[in-house]
Amino acid sequence: MQAQPSELTLGPVLFNWEPESWRDFYFRIADESPIGTVYVGEVICFKRAPLFEPYLEAVAARLKAAGITVVRSTLAEVMSKQERKMIDDICAEPDVTVEANDGSALLRLRGRPHHAGPFVNVYNERTLAVLASNGVCNVCLPPEMPATAIRALAAQAPKLSVTLEAQVFGRLPLALSARCYHARAHGRTKDTCQFICNVDPDGMPLRTLEDKPFLTVNGVQTMSHDYLNLAGELADLQAMGVTRFRLSPHSCDMVQVAKIFRAVLDRRIDATEAGVRLDAIKIEAPFSNGFYYGKPGYHWNRPDMH
Amino acid sequence: MSEAQGYQRPELVCPAGTPAALRTAVDAGADAIYCGLQNETNARNFPGLNFTVAEVEQSLAYARARNAKLLLAVNTFPPAGKFELWRDAIDGAAKLGVDAVIVADMGVADYAARTHPDLRLHLSVQAGASSPEAIRFYCEQFGVKRVVLPRMLTVAEIAELHSQIPCEIEAFIFGNIGMMAEGRCSLSNYVTGESTNMDGVCSPAAAVHYEEDTERNLTTRLGEYVIDCFAGGESAGYPTICKGRYLCGVQQGGYYAFEEPVSLNLSALLPDLMRAGVTALKIEGRQRSRAYVKSVVGAFRKAVDDIMAGREAAFASLLALTEGRRETEGAFPSKRWR
Prior knowledge:
heterodimer; A: 306 residues; alpha/beta; eight-stranded parallel β-barrel; 12 strands; B: alpha/beta; globular
């Protein structure tokens, strides 16, 4: 199969960073990174959204000025009046492309071009067709999808004029809950949290009773401890017809991460060299790629062992 | 009388993992029974559980003869390339004339709605539709007639939701509760390689290990990961990731990071739920024994009838059946649970 042009994308910041660090992070992405599309907006907790609001416009402007496409992400869990209003407000903005992460955004966005995010369950051809007929033009796949299913879905996507996107770097989003586990760990509740999640820029580590690193708490979200790394699978994904590759932001040097993945996409370096360069970034967790192979998600099939 | 007090008579929806359990539930007073096929098309795909197509047919006849409904759960998410299995389940359900299919995947819902327009669709809790807009999306798109609500809403929120959606509400009232939003959890897949969404499996028994030391302390493990440790004599729960004990920087020793191993029991809130406009009350537990089904269904049958007749309902016998004999009202009474 002929390789199609590949685009590197940056998923929304999933953590509660200091608003100024958040702004500066995006400014640096705009100025220095080879990223084509950036997803911006609070996905995890409606209480955090107002913290970043003051900088949203400046961030979007800086990214656009750098030639980067900006897509607005919506909340993954929508239930309360405030959460519903957030969805309504974002979907009512003119000239903004929106990535839906729940059913309420899918309702609001019907009939105009929009994206379906990784928190929308798009597992098969028929679901893809339903969403495409509603106006979905890009789908970021659920991270647990194995290569066999991605391949089958990618075979149908061009007929529906939908591009497929896969997360290729960063902690795996594994679960959502109505309860905030950051607040719970600190003896608070979601209503009385005082934004305690801001002490953990990459999430709060959970270890097993054997002291083995296991999961990461990010407010109402539970993530993996390890970082997904599909640098070794990029060529496979490209050959299947996946055209967009998502990096999920962390506090490590994301500009460098983006440069490494861009170099692999362009065949300038191989996966082994990418591994060496990623190791040099000193990420304090191992890599994983198990889901891709239909294995437990934390498994790591080293690229040089394929 | 009771109708005048604002109560609607709710449908009691009960679980069945086997044809024998189904007959038990019908005999104990269930208005409707839900079950699944013996494959990954349903979210309780456990060995030794569930129905063949022939068993669904026989069970349907048994239920019909006793004025009970049969609902078939086809509530997982087919991965691309495997859609046929789910398509066959829907076709089979339509052919047999089950009273409704419970679906979660948009593709499965679309197939059912277009191919079998007379087949009644219920939206599974696995679809995770928690707002009026999300529920309306499924109603408008696929003609869904009833939504099974995620276990994250308070009774007050359910009452408000009722007036904003064009379909019936089914709410869980009793049984095992996972802590994570249904249909949005890959924890089991992360540890075992079997997916709740795609395979219908959570914490598969094959990945569960119990290790006892010389002092009779018991460690439970899922795959390679320790989920909990119990001192000698302490009753040990089944290792489910969201009910385990873990370590973190701000807690002394192991703590239940997500939730303690408790069961949902909303018996005290039944009148409130009935007043909130809930059409159907759902009991969890397709993996449970016939004896369990018999006592739980029987207790709730009596309670609903008592409430409808204006009598006080009694539930003491249910506590013994909750997991580790500890129970919770979960998110339902107030927002403080979150």
